[in-house]
Amino acid sequence: MSKLWKGRTSAKTSVLADEFNSSIKIDKRMYKEDIEGSMAHVAMLSHCNVITKSEAKKISDGLSKILKDIESGKLKIDEKAEDIHMFVEEVLTKRIGVVGKKLHTARSRNDQVALDIRLNLRKEITLINFTIDKLISLIIDIANKNRDTIMSGFTHLQKAQPITFAHYILAYGMMFKRDMERLYDLYKRVNISPIGACALAGTTYKTDRVYEAKLLDMDGVCENSIDAVSDRDFIVEFASDLSIIAMHLSRLAEEMIIFTSAEFDYIELSDAVTTGSSIMPQKKNSDMAELVRGKTGRVFGNLMNILTLLKGLPLAYNKDMQEDKELIFDSIDTVKNSLSIFIEMLSTMKINKERMREDASAGFINATDLADYLVTKGMAFRDAYKISGEIVSYCLKNKRDGDNYCNKRDTHVESCNRQSQCRGELCEPAVPTLLTLENLPLEVYKKFSKLFDKDVYKFIDLETCVKRRTSIGGSSPKNIDRQISFLKK
Fold this sequence. Notes:
There is one protein chain. The strands form 5 sheets. Strands 1-2 form a two-stranded antiparallel sheet. The chain has a two-stranded antiparallel sheet with strand order 3-4. The chain has helices at 15-21, 24-27, 31-47, 53-72, 84-96, 109-145, 165-190, 209-215, 225-230, 233-259, 287-310, 324-348, 353-360, 367-376, 381-397, 442-448, 456-459, 462-468, 477-488; strands at residues 150-155, 158-164, 267-268, 350-351, 399-400, 405-406, 411-412, 421-422, 425-426, 433-434. It is mainly alpha-helical and 489 residues long. The chain folds into 3 domains: 15-104, Fumarase C, Chain B, domain 1, CATH 1.10.275; 109-208 and 216-359, Fumarase/aspartase (Central domain) (Fumarase C, Chain A, domain 2, Up-down Bundle); 362-488, Ribonucleotide Reductase Protein R1, domain 1, CATH 1.10.40. Helix 3 (31-47) crosses helix 8 (209-215) and helix 7 (165-190) runs antiparallel to helix 10 (233-259).
């Protein structure tokens, strides 16, 4: 294709330079936005009598036909062209003749590129928010089904306090809600029109930038023409927002990987989103979650790349800016794919409720509630904290008599003798098991404080612990209702 910028130079660049300079393999995805922007521009030129109405109609009809032909596959985008903007304009001129050359009146590729990327990104913001909304709806559904699913809450990856799986998964719902809010706020800054700023100084033609912006359903125009063509803050901000989304997905992916391990066995992911080993037949790997975690690095890298790209650029437009689209498009595609695979993972996962409850019973996660029990009896919290800690230490150092306990299940079985049949399986010789706060005899409790009474067992029951945390944001059923309502808004 001939170069439309031929004039000052011969435009006879080398093949290597042409390939190095070309961006069409990246920016061809903006063909629709480029054509829509051009149609608005030609309508504005006609409105302001810069070109005639018949000329505008001929150009507009030609652009509409090009768009239709590209989408139907009749017209293939020529990747030998310099960029999508040049491709569309040259095809238009070949089809409708010299009048096609009037399309570029009162604009430059500088403001044209800036417009196209804004139109494209506002569409992507909407699509990503739609997907996040689906993910939040799924999280709400999972929470509703797991209001009573007791599990351990963690700090430092150590068992900390009892919560429900509903409470746990809603925490991610809150993260994704903030992601949506950031994108909605970003949309306002993206949806501002730079078109009409031309190369950097505006135009001598009597144009109407506000009219053109309204045709494109944009909220206003960039007020400084130099800033209009050199501003890429909105791309940096979008890359940052996408990085935060990727970080949230990566955190959830990490926990999916941990929770699916044999050591935890809290959840099981569907075969549809897992893989096996080429050598170890027993393996079921959480590869999709691992890929989400891994791909987060490229999203972070794109953000730093864009920042580095812009940090030393003088005003106004520089060719360096051509690199921004490949980076932001890669982040967009990566995050969209990660969101989609997560929706499939969560919608098909199996939650092992019994295993979660069993594991929660073995970690002294009601120790804080034990201290709170003493506080309700009039003891200062710091003293209660110390006694609770001493009781945990006592339980860890002492063993519980193993008689009449099934060693395979650590469950009390009245009829079980050490060498008898238990539920169809031969029990191993019973061994002493660890004491817990729930099975510690009352007489031992009273050695630590006379304030303990038999009501302590109900107080430290895990279900009770969860229900009693009624402060806003806590684990109680009313708080779960409140959090779900908050997300639904």
